[in-house]
Specification:
With 287 residues, the chain is of the alpha/beta class. The protein contains 8 helices and 15 strands.
């Protein structure tokens, strides 16, 4: 079976409005250590399919290169941290870039830099944007399966754009993707259907007071949330892998590559496209 590795460990707002066109000229996708290449490829395809005109897509294998490129660009852009490994993202951000580079990115994402930088974090990219988090997952040893709780390391640096978050479901096994599912969610537009989940976070009821909730698991548990960062700059974090659309003919996959418990979710009621469009509109893109 092919790995569905979008996330390896290691929240409905009453008011929602479509944001003003952000004028984003380029989408910078991190594709280096810790990034799921499946997620990277699908995110790029999502922008090319839905955004008109399609933005320039840039890939960066190192955070240092991405930040240096941002310094040279005065045009508004979007930084995307895809599904992957939260721990490896933290390691890159803590140990592989200078304190000056780290401060530049933090300030740029708070609307205090020379250019507008928006943010999209999916799965591990959502955890990476948190002040702190707790990831719960199943880990099997030779005798039994046990539930592991992994708290965000105090000595590792993150973006601190959103408050505390935790795993949406606790029965996910990162070694074999058992526990991955297509939960039913509700979009802020009122549409309901399934979207792929593979280990990402959920956001509690406190998020409804200060953030825009774009998608919900239920009335008190949210799946995708957003916030304003600066003038015409926004951030979205998602516990769902909405970049994966089983109904998109451009996605090359065989249903047999997925665990049998996912087949019905793949075949029935998917709203990945509608979810992606909701997120992209919130970020200010023209669809």
């Amino acid at each position: 079976m092919k790995r569905l590795c979008f996330l390896i460990p290691f929240f409905f707002c009453i008011l929602f409005t479509q944001n003003v066109q952000a004028g984003i000229s380029s989408v910078r996708i991190y594709s280096g250590e810790g990034a799921s290449q499946s997620s990277v490829k699908l995110i790029a395809s999502m922008f090319q399919r839905h955004v008109k005109p399609a933005p320039q897509i840039l890939y960066f294998e190192k955070l240092s290169s991405l930040i240096d490129n941002l310094k040279e660009d005065t045009e508004a852009s979007l930084l995307v941290m895809p599904g992957g490994s939260t721990i490896l993202y933290e390691h890159q951000f803590t140990s592989k870039i200078s304190s000056e580079q780290r401060e530049f990115l933090v300030q740029a994402l708070r609307g205090k830099g020379p250019t507008q930088v928006s943010y999209l974090g999916i799965g591990a990219g959502a955890f990476f944007a948190a002040t702190d988090y707790k990831i719960s997952f199943q880990m099997e040893d030779r005798e039994k399966s046990q539930l592991i709780h992994y708290a965000s390391p105090y000595n590792m640096k993150r973006l601190n754009l959103f408050p505390t978050m935790s795993s949406a479901f606790q029965d996910f096994n990162p070694k074999n993707d058992e526990g991955a599912r297509f939960p039913i969610i509700s979009l802020q537009t009122g549409e309901k259907g399934t979207v792929f989940w593979n280990g990402g976070p959920a956001f509690g009821s406190s998020y409804s007071y200060a953030y825009n909730v774009l998608a919900s698991f239920d009335e008190n548990t949210f799946a995708i949330v957003g916030r304003k960062l600066g003038e015409n700059a926004f951030a979205v974090i998602s516990g769902l892998q909405f970049e994966f659309d089983p109904y998109d003919s451009n996605n090359e996959f065989d249903i047999k590559d997925f665990p049998t418990h996912l087949h019905n979710g793949i075949r029935n009621g998917g709203i990945a496209k509608e979810t992606a469009i909701t997120v992209l509109k919130y970020l200010g893109f023209t669809i």
